[in-house]
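Task: sequence design from structure.
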């Protein structure tokens, strides 16, 4: 490990001694404030806890523009089954294996602690020449950009921002999608069974799932849509009534599993099972390239009586048709970046609870007007089904600025340093840059960072050689502002 990387990792290790799960950032924030005060640097927080540390310019850089280096201090706290680790007090135990740094039994917290470490190491090194710096450390990023959505834009005077929350060295992110969530709620006509009926259990499991933004272009199966197709097949064979329905685990997760129970006449059981099995095999084959472990099962649960409550046939049909009508998956591809999804939707969660149908859908687009359009389409389907529909304000997109001076500067320096061409991409997911750019007009931004794998899981690991490359780029980038002002 070279000296620069060692300095960054030493700083990262200090950060990892401090509990900093999302919504529990008070200790790390106080530590950062003390670190800044010890050096005589001004620091200020807003009501949400977002912190800015103002670092004076190096000699000769006093007239250069202020540069913001930004990352978030919170981390996703996940541990292996059986681990006794207590994130509220135990330090993250880091371990190096070859060129990779990981943690023992837990998430590493490189997302996004490594950004904080790089920013601190740059500011603290007297040999590094730099313009006036604002180290901007946000809170509660991992639970929905909550911290930055409450930012006080008056804390930032700079209009050049380098976000260090990207996870692939050599890739510059220059835009991101905005997103909103839509919830639907509809009362169902639910009746006690007053005739002999049979009960069938249907399940769709084993799908890959994934992030509903980053992974949506992979065209993986959505368990809620799969089960809706299965139910529609059954409706064409015989009358069925929904007794239970549940699928999906989170608004930003492609559902991996969905289950339902349906009641039918005893004489229709064999025909329904045959139709369900046939449709299941077809869908398993359809998704074999993307979801090889997709498994659709049908089981007989025996006869039911008055103790079982089922949705009416009409409301069962309404539920199935609504789930089929809701868009899910890539909707439009970007004309500027042909392999990038521009607009998407994800039928995230569906459940029948207390005689009510509850649905959550998440929509994303890098074009604000197209985000409006996909949200309107989702809302319209719910309204036609008689549901109460609510779409939140979400978070804004980060529009691509093809004339960005910061992007041109970073590309030029990267070519000079590494004799290679960086990749420029837009991310189909929400980033803090979208919010910051929306609240601070005229902000020139780029997102970059070292390579890491499996963030948000105990398998998270950081590629150490990429830390050294990001360090070299940042040193050169800051030094390049010397003659400006």
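Answer:
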């Amino acid at each position: 490990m070279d000296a620069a990387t060692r300095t960054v990792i030493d700083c990262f290790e200090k950060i990892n001694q401090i509990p900093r799960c999302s919504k529990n950032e008070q200790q790390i924030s106080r530590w950062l404030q003390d670190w800044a005060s010890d050096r005589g640097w001004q620091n200020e927080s807003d009501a949400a806890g977002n912190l800015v540390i103002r670092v004076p310019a190096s000699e000769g850089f006093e007239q250069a523009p202020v540069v913001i280096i930004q990352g978030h201090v919170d981390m996703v706290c996940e541990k292996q089954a059986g681990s006794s680790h207590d994130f509220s007090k135990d330090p993250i135990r880091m371990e190096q294996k070859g060129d990779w740094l990981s943690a023992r039994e837990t998430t590493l917290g490189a997302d996004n602690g490594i950004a904080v470490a790089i920013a601190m190491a740059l500011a603290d090194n007297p040999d590094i020449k730099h313009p006036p710096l604002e180290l901007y450390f946000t809170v509660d990023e991992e639970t929905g950009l909550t911290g930055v959505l409450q930012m006080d834009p008056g804390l930032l005077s700079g209009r050049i921002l380098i976000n260090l929350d990207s996870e692939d060295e050599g890739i510059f992110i220059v835009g991101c999608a905005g997103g909103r969530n839509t919830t639907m709620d509809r009362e169902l006509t639910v009746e006690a069974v007053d005739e002999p009926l049979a009960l069938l259990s249907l399940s769709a499991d084993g799908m890959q799932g994934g992030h509903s933004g980053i992974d949506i272009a992979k065209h993986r199966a959505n368990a809620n849509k799969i089960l809706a197709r299965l139910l529609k097949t059954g409706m064409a064979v015989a009358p069925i009534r929904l007794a239970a329905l549940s699928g999906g685990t989170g608004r930003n997760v492609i559902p991996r599993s969905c289950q339902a129970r349906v009641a039918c006449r005893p004489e229709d059981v064999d025909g329904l099972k045959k139709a369900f099995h046939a449709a299941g095999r077809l869908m398993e084959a359809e998704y074999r390239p993307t979801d090889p472990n997709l498994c659709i099962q049908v089981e007989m649960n025996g006869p039911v009586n008055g103790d079982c409550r089922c949705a009416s046939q009409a409301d069962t049909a309404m539920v199935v048709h609504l789930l089929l009508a809701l868009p899910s998956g890539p909707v439009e591809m970007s004309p500027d970046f042909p392999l990038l999804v521009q607009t998407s939707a994800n039928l995230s969660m569906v459940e029948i609870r207390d005689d009510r149908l509850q649905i959550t859908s998440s929509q994303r687009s890098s074009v604000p007007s197209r985000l409006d359009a996909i949200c309107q389409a989702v809302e319209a389907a719910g309204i036609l089904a008689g549901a109460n529909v609510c779409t939140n304000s979400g978070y804004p997109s980060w529009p691509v600025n093809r004339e960005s001076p910061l992007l041109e500067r970073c590309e030029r320096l990267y070519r000079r340093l590494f004799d290679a061409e960086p990749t420029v991409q837009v991310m189909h997911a929400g980033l803090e840059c979208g919010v910051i750019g929306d609240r601070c007009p005229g902000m020139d931004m780029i997102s970059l960072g070292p390579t890491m794998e499996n963030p948000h899981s105990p398998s998270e690991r950081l590629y150490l050689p990429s830390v050294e490359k990001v360090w070299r780029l940042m040193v050169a980038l800051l030094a390049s502002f010397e003659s400006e002002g």
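The domain at 3-177+398-479 is CATH 3.40.630.10 (Aminopeptidase).
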